[in-house]
Each structure stands twice: as C-alpha cells, then as structure tokens.
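Hi support team,

I submitted a single chain yesterday and got back a structure, but I'm not sure I'm reading the token output correctly. Could someone confirm the output below corresponds to the sequence I sent? I've pasted both exactly as they appear in my results page.

Thanks,
R.
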Amino acid sequence: MDKEIQPGDILKDGRYEIKEFLGTGQEKKIYLASDRHLDCLVALDVFSSNNPVMPGGQTLNAWEARVLGHLGDHPNIATVLDTWGRLDIVINNAADLHARGLLEEDLASFNRAVTVAAAGNFLFTKHGAIAMIERDIRGSIVSILSSNAWQGAAGFIAYAFHKGGLANFVRAAAMDLAPYGIRVNSFSPTAPRPDNPELLAQWQAEGRTSLRRPLRDPGPRPSWWRAAGTYDVRGNIPMGEAATPTDIGHCVAWMCSDYARLITGCDFVIDGGARAKYWAYTPPSDNAGPAPLIPLDITEFDGPELDYG
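Hi R., thanks for writing in. Yes, this is the structure output for that exact sequence:
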C-alpha cells in the first residue's frame, strides 16, 4: 500500500480503523488500529508495494501480528505513550513457570512456556526500543532471568530452556541497540523472599504459608520412574538471607539510571553469594547476616510469620 495512511482511515473492507502511527520496521510502517472483528486494539503492519515482503516474511509477520493482537486488552507500549508521551524503561518479566521435568513435559506445554518468554521479550524489547529511538531517548531495557538461566535444576525443563536462551538474547540485543545509546541488561533473581505487603496480605487471606504453591498431583508414574532430588534454598546462601523484592528494586532502579550509562549486555544478581559458591561448600548456619534492609518505602505487614523455605 502506497497511500499515506492517517488516523481515522478504514482499511481491509472496514475491518481496521487506524488510531495512530507507532513506528517503522525494515520494510513496513506500524500503526495502532482498532480491529472491528475482534473488538480489540492491534498493531497493524503496512507494507509498500514498492518494497515487497521477503520470502518467508509473510509467515513471520503473521505470527508476530497474532501475538501482538493479544496485547489489545492490556496496558502496552502504545498506552504508555498515550499517557506519558515517552518511554524510558522497559522491564521484561513475563514467564511461565511450571514444574515439569524432561520426562513428563509435553510439546504443547513446552512451546507455550517458550513462546510466552520469547515473544514477550522480543516484542517489547523491539517496539520499546523503536519508541525510544524515535524520541531520541537513551533508555534502558531489563529482562528478568532466573538462576535457572545459569544452572541446571531438575523439574523445570521448559523454564530452564527459555531463561537460558534469554541470557544470550540480552547480549545480542545489547549489541543491536548500543549504536542508539539504549542499554539492555538482565537481572537474575534467586528464590527471593517476598516482602511486598499486598502479596503477603493476599497469601494470608488464602491461608498460604510458603513461597511455592502446592505441587500438582502428577498421577501414575511408570515402574522405572525415579524421584528427583530436593532443594535447600536457604541453607545454601553464604550470607544466610535471601534477597527480597526491595533488594531487587534497588538494583534494577540503579541499572536503569544514568549512573549505569555504560553498562550493557550484563547480568546482575542479588543472591548472598549463592551463584559464586563452590558446589560442594555448605555455608555455616550461624553467620552474622547482611546489613539491615533499606526500604523502598515505609510499609508494614501485620500478620503471621511466613515460611519462605
């Protein structure tokens, strides 16, 4: 299509109403549009007839459009720009964590977990970066990984796969965006201990006293099945205390600030030394512990002590 498209234009026999221009790709212009058939907002790719889609590109663009279509009912980059007029920081945190090992995972579940993480990080990193570039903003993009990105843990095969892949996605994206002054880094939580009052209050209302939800019943197992090992998170932290969302917030806020202006393609971790620990070393149980936590804000939780082990 070669006609200049304007907000309010109607395309494809009345299906799409153009809302606003979002940005450009290599061969296309991207618009926010209202899909009258699906009754939601979608990102619409429009190609010039003078610049046809490369072989295989039509399939890839159709896949990307389907994924972007799911963002229509949720806050997204277009909503941020409508509200604030700019975008400085993107935090990619979407993931599907389900406890299934290699021998019990199925392809549909595996693909869903990988797609949630891969598509989410790719699309928001790409379109977030375009929004920054168009406004000459030297922003920061952070992908949330996991200790499963760096070490093998039994029972989380899909999670380990997509978190490990994201570790190198961050490095590659950092190289792609470095010429624009945009930094891309990752943060790897290690079984953090929740301290956010809203979540703790919700847990209290639900009667939960532990970090993990009860494991699902796996059903009958073959006669040759062997049980996986166990995990002792707290007993393997050299400093004796797990990080909290407050600790993570301090680090990520600094990562996204101009104090970290030349830091890109790196991973950050707050784990009390767990990743650095020699595998056979067991820390003492009576260590002094860290310095007191500096709060992000003053909040208190009036409820029973919860078990985070």
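A quick pointer for reading it: Residues 107-134 form the longest helix (28 residues). Let us know if anything else looks off.

Best,
Support desk
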